[in-house]
Amino acid sequence: MRRPLAAAATATALLATLALTGTANAADPAPAVSRIGDTRLDSQALYFVSYNGLVNNNSFQKNGLLTYKGYQYAAWYTADRSAVVARRPLGATTWQTVKLAHTLRYDDSHNVISMGVSRIDGRLHLNMDSHSDAFFYVKSNAGLLDNPGGRAWTASEFGAVQTTLDGLALTSQFTYPQFVATPEGRLQLSYRVAVSGNGRNALAEYDGTRWTALGEWTASTGTYTSEHGSSTARNMYLHGIDYSADGTLHAFFTWREQNGAVMCNGGGITNHDTGYVRSTDRGRTWRNAAGTVVGTTGGADRVSVNDTGLVVDPLNPDHSLMNQESQATDSASRPHALISYVPGRFGQCTTNYVGDRTANGRVFHVRKDLTTGAWRKTEIPVPLNSSQRTKLVLDKYDNAYAIMPYGRIAGASKASNYTDWKVLFDGSGLNAFGEVVVDETRVAQDNVLSIMYQQKSSGTTPSPIHVVDFALPQ
C-alpha cells in the first residue's frame, strides 16, 4: 500500500505547488462545451472543393468570424460569388447582411476573406480573393464598430474595393492575409510574398491614418538537407500570428521546401519541423525561444532555415506535416500550438498526402510545460479522419480545445498539464464539410465558442453556411 499512498501524496503536493505558483488550480472547472445555438448565415453559400477545402471555411482565415463590442461579424461568398459581410448582436438569431462590390474570380479555396478591426478608429477591414496574385481590400467608415447599434448596416458604410491598401501597393504575388490588432489598437496585416516553396512573410501596419509597409521578415534562401536530398528554396508557413497578454507577438511555423528531393516519396509533402519565433517590439525584431535575435523586419538579416534555436519539434519531410494549423496564447502569455502529421508508428514514409493523413493522421498539442518550461508535445487520442486542419482555443481557465474537421471538439484541462484530452462534441447534427472557422476573439469576451461551418454538398451545388455556439465553463 505504500506506493499508492506515496504517489497520492506526491500528486497532492504537486497540485498544491502548481496552485501556489499560479500555473494550475485544481478548483478550476474542467473543459466542457454546451451547445446553445445554431444560426444560418446563408442557405446558398458558394460551394466548390479545391485543395481539399472550401473557400468559405479554411481554418487559416484570420478572421472569417470575429467579435467586437458586443457584435459578431462574419464574411463569406454567396452562391453568385459575391463577397458578403454580416453582423449580429451577440445572442441574436438573425444576421444583417451587406453584399460588397466584389465577386470571387476563381474556384480556388485559398482566396478566402479575412477580417480585422482597427480599434484606434473603429473600422472593419477586409482582405480577399488572392493566391499569389492581386488582393482586394475594403474598409468600413470610421467608428462603425464603435457604435454598432446606432449605425445602419448598409453598403454605404463601406468604401470602394481597392487593389492596394489605400494606395500602398505591397506585391503582385500576395497570399494568406491575416489581420492582427496590436495592444495599442493599431492593425497589422501579415501576408506571404511570392509563391509556395519560394516565398517570404511580410508585415504592413495601419495607424488609423495610413498603411505602412514594414517589410519582409523571413528568408526563402539557405540550404536544408534531409537524408534523401537538399533544397535551396522554401517558404515559412505560419500556424498563426498573435499577441499575448504581455504584448509579445508569437508565431509558430513549419517550413515547406521547393525541391521534392528532400522527401522519401513524391506523393508526400515537403513540410518539415515545427518552429517558433517571437517579437517584443511589435514585429520589428524576431527572436528564438531563447531570446536570441534571428531576424529583423525589413532588414538584411531575416529569419532563415539555417538560424539556430528555431525548431521546437523536429520532424523530417516524410510524415505529411500540415502547414498553417493553429496556435494560441494563454493567460500567462505562454505559446501553444496544434500540429498534425502521420506518426512514425504508421510508417516512416507517407506516399499519398491526402490518403495517408486521412487514414493515420493525428493531432498534437505543443506548448511550454507548466512545471519545467520546456517544450512539450502531447498526442490528442482522436483519429484525424481527414487531411485537413484543427483549430486551437483556450478558455478563461486556460483549458485547451481542439476544434477538429467536421466540427468535432476535444478538450484537455490545464490542471492535468494538458494530458487528459477527450472528445467533448462529436459533430453530430452539423453535417460539416471539413475544416471550420473559429471566432478566436469571442472566447475572451464572453467565454462562448463560435464556429462557422458549411454543410457538405456535391460538385458545385451551393449549401447552407452556419454559426454554431457553445458555452464554455463560466
TrEMBL record:
Keywords: Signal
Membrane-spanning segments: none
Protein name: BNR repeat-containing protein
Lineage: Bacteria, Bacillati, Actinomycetota, Actinomycetes, Kitasatosporales
SUPFAM superfamilies assigned to the protein according to its UniProt record, in alphabetical order: Oligoxyloglucan reducing end-specific cellobiohydrolase, Sialidases
Organism: Streptomyces coeruleoprunus
Source domain of life: Bacteria
Pfam families reported in the protein's UniProt record: BNR_4 (PF15892)
Signal peptide start-end: 1-26
